[in-house]
Amino acid sequence: MDHAIATRDDWLAARLDLMQAEKAHMRAGDALAKQRRALPRVRIEKPYTFTGARGQLTLPDLFGSHSQLFVYHFMFGADWAEGCPSCSFWADNFDGLAAHLAARDCALVVVSKAPYEVLASYKQRMGWQFRWVSAGDSGFNEDLGVTFAPEDIEAGRAVYNFRKTKSIGTEMPGITVFQRDGDAVFHTYSTYARGLEAINSGYHILDLLPKGRDEEKLPWSMAWLRRHDQYS
Asked: How far from the centroid of its chain's Cα atoms is residue 156's Cα?
């Protein structure tokens, strides 16, 4: 992109014009968040189990003492040696958040299909501290629309991002939000695909830069990305 050279006064005038658009965008985002919070909720009836650092956990266990639960579905298949590079980029945003979310009555947990021991080893390699559990064969990933059987993908039966598609892998990323009311747990929100960008500070920083994300000429949008310990 070519950038005009301006005087400071001309730059300030253009910046103030842009600020009006930014404020309108933020107000629209506030309205969208209110609409999101007003979604109806669905009671979870299945007794999902997970494996964490201290053994078996139920879905209510993941809440701890909180009434809200934020789940990031990290792409890490049962037979994978490493986690997905793009999910690793997202996960780099999570450390340090748990205490802040807890102050607003929310627990954060990352969930994957791979065995807990494999997740723990990769977590140690990447230097992360957030809570990460394995959904294993509980059906949690499948029911929340992030793990798919190859035959379902091939037949066009797989539903990702609320629509049937063949253009996915057996593991896909997502976010799910739950709420607990006494002994009852409810599913309140899920998002997938570009809906995940809301929690990636790296992309938001790139959007502020003169070059932006600079992905237009790449073979695919995230072809530049590496796990943070693999950049030369």
From this structure: 24
pLDDT at 3 over 90: no
At 63, list the tokens: 């809440």
Number of neighbours of residue 112 by Cβ within 10 angstroms: 29
What six digits make up the tokens of 40?
A: 């109806």
Structure tokens at 62: 């993941």
The mean pLDDT of 196-222, rounded to a whole number, is: 96
pLDDT band at 1 (very low <50, low <70, confident <90, very high): low
Task: Find the mean pLDDT for residues 141-154.
Answer: 98
Q: What is the pLDDT of residue 2?
A: 75
Task: Return the sign of the alpha-carbon dihedral for residues 198, 200, 204, 210.
Answer: negative
**pLDDT averaged over the chain?**
97
What's the mean pLDDT in 104-123? 98
pTM for the model: 0.95
Do residues 213 and 89 touch, judged by C-beta distance below 8 A? no
- Closest C-alpha to 63, from 105, 114, 116, 112: 105
Alpha-helical regions (H) of the chain:
8-37, 59-63, 85-91, 97-102, 116-126, 140-143, 150-154, 201-208
Q: 85, exposed or middle or buried, with CB in 10 Å at 0-12, 13-18, 19+? A: middle
Rounded Cα gap, residues 204 and 208, in angstroms: 7
Of the candidates 230, 221, 189, 232, the one whose C-alpha atom is nearest the C-alpha of residue 83 is 230
What kind and span of H or E run contains 106? Answer: strand 106-112
Q: How far apart are CA 198 and CA 204, in angstroms?
A: 8
